[in-house]
Amino acid sequence: MTPRIPDPGSLSPGRGRKEVYVKARGLSAIDFGKEAIDIAGLSQLEEDGQARAIGDGFVYCLRNLMGADRTLGEVLDAFEAIVENEGLDAVACVKAGFYARPRRYELAGAVNRLRALRCRIVKQEKTKNE
Fold first, then answer.
1. Domain coordinates of the chain in residue numbers?
2. Rounded to two decimals, what is the model's pTM?
3. Mean pLDDT (whole number) for 2-28
4. Using CA atoms, how far apart are residues 9 and 62, in angstroms rounded to an integer?
């Protein structure tokens, strides 16, 4: 997999006067700002709470983890560590208790469906064996 560095400036969770507009529409889509993310193809999602956690997780990652030349893999690693150590409430926009933990692969799959996201490819140096 080619390492990519997401550009947090390419995403905005806001819509209209709302600074953050994130809404899960069941297991079919997540409204993230002005963009609708089609998650119907993420067949491992089982509960609406996972879709809500993915939407709020995007906002958390955008505000706290993206930038500083972190690759998408590093962002996902940091997100997983925070959820593991502090729970889903640590990354939730609203502390409501109706979240279910998504796997890293579903979060990555939803990120890949964000049309507005721009990334920079990290060029890796080849070793002698390659």
1. 4-120
2. 0.86
3. 89
4. 9
